[in-house]
């Protein structure tokens, strides 16, 4: 869904770094087949994370690494230190709010978007699509508080 949105918004270049190259290539093939957009795909090894992080305008993490209850975590976050200070770091993980990736990005002074904020934005679009209504800022703030209370209770 994230790559689809980037394609729709005419992203210039999309680089997909995946822990498993074959899985990343499957995603890239689907994007190419359905939308005619070429996605560069590489294995997420430290050297390539460093290389492409240094070039990124936006870095979006969309795997369960760092998620509460998921056994695996990031083996390497040094690439965050290589990012330009203007690079926007987004993490789709909603719990915890500050994943190891976002904590490192905050430490480096980079702009952040939390997974919870991404989820609320997605919920807004879904609600609009299904019901033709867009929740206002007050409703989104209320939703955020309900979600935070819930996520805090499942730790």
Measured distance between first and last alpha carbons:
27 Å
The biggest sheet, with number of strands, parallel, antiparallel or mixed sense and barrel status, is: 3 strands, parallel
- Number of H/I helices: 6
Cross-sheet strand order for the largest sheet: 3-4-5
Secondary structural class: alpha/beta
Average pLDDT reading:
93
Query: What portion of the residues fall into strands of 2 or more residues?
Result: 5-15%
Give a count of the beta strands, DSSP E runs of length 2 or more.
5
Shape: globular
The helix/strand series, from N terminus to C terminus, equals HEHEHEEHEHH
Write a concise synopsis of the structure shown.
The protein is an alpha/beta fold. It is built from 6 helices and 5 strands; from the N terminus they run H-E-H-E-H-E-E-H-E-H-H.
What features would you describe in this structure?
By secondary structure, the chain is an alpha/beta fold. 46% of the residues lie in helices and 12% in strands. The chain contains six helices and five strands, in the order αβαβαββαβαα. The protein has a three-stranded parallel beta sheet with strand order 3-4-5. Strand 1 (15-18), helix 2 and strand 2 (40-43) form a beta-alpha-beta unit. The longest helix has 17 residues, at 115-131. The radius of gyration is 16 Å and the shape is globular. The model has no long low-confidence stretch (mean pLDDT 93).
